[in-house]
Amino acid sequence: MHIRTFLIGKFFTALCIGIFFVGTAFITGCKKSDSITDVGQTADDNADAVDAVSDVLASNNGGAMDQVNDVFEISGGVGVGASESLGKGYADSTFVAKQYDSTTATWTMSLYRQKSILPLYYGVWSRTYTLQFRANGRPQKFRAPVGGSVADSIIHKTISTGCTGYFWTPRLVHHLVSLSGNWTASNTNTDTVTINGSYEWSGIDTIKVTTRAGRIINRTISLTFINVRGPRGLRRDRSAATSGTIKGTYTATVTVAGKTHTVTKSFTIILGGGNAAITIDDGTKATADLASGDH
After folding, report:
1. In a domain? residue 58
2. Mind listing the pLDDT tens digit for each residue in 126-136?
3. 253 lies in which domain range?
4. pTM above threshold 0.90
5. What Å distances lie between residue 3 and 6, 161, 193, CA to CA?
6. Cα 162 from Cα 60, distance rounded (Å)
């Protein structure tokens, strides 16, 4: 079966399953806080921004930390290359394909993942990356070629045309609109890998909250990774060993009860201990779990 057909078929099957749960399940209780009172539009917008930033990082729905962990794994030999496995053990199901282009000296990886712990959440996503291994400034086909040098850097790009996503919880339905990224992972021949670069995400979310009006939010988040560090090798539980700084901007068009307004915010994220300490430019602060996005 053609890989693209396989991926599309798997995605839409999983999407239908997710829509079924949205239509038939109403379960109170979710790890994210639902206790925000309606104290005004600004408070709601701040809460939405924190939710969005937390979700765009979370590894259990294909967020940025999922891709960060891929880079850490590939740097340690769990990735493309001779006798190297692409399998991941943390998702309910995973499909991976890879292809090498000798003209550009890059690998293209296509990944499909599905993850659910019902009734808490259900997610399905696909990603397409390009990877280029480099040693001493020169591209090479494998991370660790026989008789050659282990790659000391990896150019990792997320290709927007190969990214899809759907995520459901009792309070949130998310549809990915676009995703792109351009990272340089350095020191990939050492125990600690460092990632710098850009990551941009946009999506449409429908949020159900009992204590304030339900909201439809079309939002875009731009992230700049600044010396985000973590151990190369197998995926670490809850990204506990990842540190560094992320600067970002959040823009959104918010519709509540038929009325629409726009929001723009800047924020800073400090990573450590498996968490993201988020500070929005107006002083709002929150701490989110990097694995689940809970805060």
Report:
1. yes
2. 999 999 999 99
3. 3-289
4. no
5. 5, 15, 31
6. 19
